[in-house]
Amino acid sequence: MRYQISGKQIDVGEALSTHVKSEIGELVEKYAQRATECVTVFSRNAHEFVCEIDIRLSTGLSMQSRGNAAEIYACFESARERLDKQVRRYKRRLRSYHSDRKGPVEFDAAPSYILAPFEESEEPEPETLAPVVVAEMETRIPSVTVGEAVMQMELAGQKMLVFRNEGHGGVNVVYRRDDGNIGWIDPRNSR
What pLDDT digit, counting tens, does each position of 75-123 carry? Predict the structure, then answer.
């Protein structure tokens, strides 16, 4: 597994890097997952340290967690415990996910844009209402079932996930609703 351990305006020492590698290696081995990459980023937010962990599995799933604490080792342990809890919760489904799938998850590439917000002003309305593109990047869209998409969204800690539905090949969206339930948008069924 490839590890990338870094800090945003923080010097991550050799001892902390070794600790992260051993703890994450233990976690991955405990649940018998085939991880390919682990990205761990440490940063500061006022008086607290923040640790963000992103683990990518060979099947295409990714797991993410975040921890905050006054000490750097404690913030890593907080993030690791959250990750452990997520994986424990989905352990059975992850194992069946591996056995049912004939090959790795396929990904499509899609453009992703970040748009600048409209500013409220007293000036007359511009002729074109086209938003200004602030950033342009490429994103990966997995080809999975609805259940796997919900699991991926939960493991990654995201509020929504765009995916290609393996059942019919159409683009779908699952998202976390304000009431805590999961919403599923399937444009194909809108007829």
Answer: 999 999 998 888 787 776 666 554 555 666 677 777 777 777 766 666 6
One-character DSSP codes across 27-71:
HHHHTT--EEEEEEEEEEETTEEEEEEEEEETTS-EEEEEEEESS
Distances (CA, A) of 101 to 108, 140, 168: 18, 19, 16
Other beta carbons within 10 angstroms of residue 48's beta carbon come to: 15
Three-state DSSP class for residue 149: helix
Contacts of 64 (CB under 8 A, 6+ apart): 52, 53, 54, 55, 83, 155, 156, 157, 158
Distance CA(52)–CA(5), nearest Å, equals 10
**Each residue's pLDDT tens digit, 116-163:** 776 666 666 666 667 777 778 787 788 888 888 888 888 877 889 999
In the chain, the domains with their CATH numbers are 2-90 (3.30.160.100), 106-190 (3.30.505.50)
Q: Contact 112/49 with Cβ under 8 angstroms?
A: no
